[in-house]
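SUBJECT: A protein chain and its fold
Encoding: whole-number codes for local backbone shapes
Chain under study, with its fold:
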Amino acid sequence: MKRDSRALWILAAVAALAAGCERPPAGGGLPIGRPGADIVLRAETVLVQGIVPPHATLDALLRAQNLPLETVNHLVGAVRTVFDPRKLRVSQPFELLRTMDGKIRRFAYEIDAATRVLVEPDPPSGALTAALRPIPRDRHEGTASGAIDRETPSLFEAMDEAGEAPELAIAMAEIFSGEVDFNTELQPGDRFAVAFEKFTRDGRPDTYGDIEAAELQNGDRVLRAFRFAPPGDKAGYYDEQGRSLRRFFLRSPLKFEPRITSGFSRARMHPVLESVRAHLGVDYGAPTGAPVVAVASGRVVSATFDRANGRMVRLRHASGYETYYLHLSAFGPGIRAGAPVSQGQIIGRVGSTGLATGPHLDYRVRKDGVFVNPVKVHASMPPGEPIPAEARAAFEARRDEVLARLSP
């Protein structure tokens, strides 16, 4: 009888112990003691992911993570062997993996969309070493199409309606910048289609690659562009006949949204002086700060300020042409007398300096010492250089291949 009682007591004790093991531990962790249950351990590392804040230095960025000063100095020194920490850019992503006692397991900073700095401890010595690493991306082929209408009156808005970002609209406008003034020549009923590269990272949209083909129905004309690299030359855009779309002059010194508010005239009532004077250029209404670009490659003759013209840039180009950009709010980087400029380079920002009633660009063209109508000059520019004869067959094969992607 005593043996039976003792056995019952032992079974009860074991049951009580098992029941206690199934209760969650303090702090809400997973139960301990059940077969297959996870055991809660204290984390050994901390992962910090963020973006570079304004006015940050690499040193300050690391100190904010409560790293020892010696560790910060070693990490900055390692980065300096492959990348200048003074070039740290605002809003670029970074990642830091460290132990609880402040040792670095990994530090990564994205220099741009294609490259990052990676710092890790060297296995034999534990010393921090840095290297530049490509950022893995997946390439995809994309297409988009849309229309200019009342709801989407600009290429920006039409591209957004098609589900693509403004960067794609800008790239497409630059391709046709020698053929179409996107500020004034788009009209309801115009349509576009574009075939392009698109890159993703970890399944998420990342950046656009090259536009491979584009089509724009502008009024009664249909413009097409195909990207092609002739042997021994860099890639460019060509029309269906193989003629380069790169013109001597861009159609406009402004990219988007502005409108012509005053045309070329030998007798116009000046809005400030209230007297009849010649207006030897074209006024584009645009917001203050909008970028103004050089319509052709050349050299800066002057970058000046006076009470009438405000901030003004004057450029000299080949074939006896000069262009003038008046009433700027600021000059572009490096714009000074004698500096070379390339077509499409920002030479200033729209403003209202000098005799101006509001923000706009007064743009002028002079040919062999005589001011001429910019609109007519731009429209009369001849087609660009054609594809070399020896590359013609390769161009036509590539043209037909990507043209099929533009078809509905």
Remarks:
- The chain is about 20% helix and 35% strand.
- The CA atoms of residues 183 and 246 lie 19 Å apart.
